[in-house]
Design brief:
The protein is of the alpha+beta class and 236 residues long. It has a domain of 157 residues: Pnp Oxidase, Chain A (Roll). It has six helices and nine strands, in the order αβαβββββββααβαα. Strand 2 and strand 3 form a beta hairpin. About 8% of the residues have low confidence.
């Protein structure tokens, strides 16, 4: 009896410590019907690497959204860790204290889906899209070396995507030093990872094939970055 009481007391004492070791469960940041929920972490990480220009959303100093490219380190933390930076003058940097919550939205392609594309026409129009939300608490990266390393890694990552060999090391040390005070670098260890892929996967095979056929034809098309940029330049 004494042993059982002792065991019970020890377990009660240990319980808070065990609870502290478990990461806090974040409230969902978006509505996801079961049919559109994707939890495969490798798949979500691949998507985040491919669509890595994100919306950084924080509730302070007011509701703020900043649009930035980021880096994902898959092996750091439970769900991965994200690195990025904003402008040093951006008031959003006040949230980089490891306490304020934030959501980074990774957004993929999207488009209108007409009921006429389905095998069964008795349907409502809809919009197909894919997003991943990564939630956590951003913390500032202190020191010039941390900022320099982040810039170098970002440049390597995105220069590779355009088949360029440019690197931070090709700039003069003086010029690089002048850049570092202009940025506010951060790291965010992901506490919650949510994937919503609303691509009509719950529909019948005939409907899915109809959607694929029309999308292949370019039935829905937005301007490319080239087209948008050229049109904007023509504004004079």
């Amino acid at each position: 009896m004494d042993m059982n009481r002792r065991t019970l007391l020890m377990s009660l004492v240990a319980a808070p410590a065990l609870l502290e070791q478990e990461p806090a469960t974040s409230d969902p940041s978006l509505y996801i019907p079961k049919a559109h929920l994707v939890e495969d972490r490798g798949f979500l990480h691949d998507f985040m690497d491919e669509y890595s220009f994100v919306d950084l959303v924080t509730p302070a100093p007011t509701l703020r959204i900043t649009h930035i490219p980021v880096l994902l380190e898959r092996s750091e933390g439970r769900y991965g860790t994200i690195y990025g930076h904003i402008a040093a003058q951006n008031p959003q940097r006040a949230t980089f204290d490891g306490a304020h919550p934030a959501v980074l939205v990774f957004r993929g392609p999207h488009g209108y889906i007409s009921p006429t594309w389905y095998a069964k026409r008795e349907a409502a129009p809809t919009w197909n899209f894919a997003v991943v939300h990564a939630s956590g608490r951003p913390a500032a990266i202190a020191g010039s070396e941390g900022a320099r390393d982040l810039l170098a890694r970002l440049i390597r990552r995105y220069e590779k995507s355009v088949a360029s060999d440019f690197a931070l090391e090709k700039l003069s040390p003086e010029y690089v030093d002048s850049l570092l005070p202009r940025i506010a670098p951060f790291r965010l260890e992901i506490e919650a990872l949510e994937g919503k892929f609303k691509l009509g996967q719950e529909r019948a095979e005939g409907d899915r094939q109809g959607v694929l056929a029309r999308l292949r034809e370019g039935a829905y098309r937005e301007r490319s970055l080239y087209e948008l940029t050229a049109a904007f330049y023509r504004r004079g």
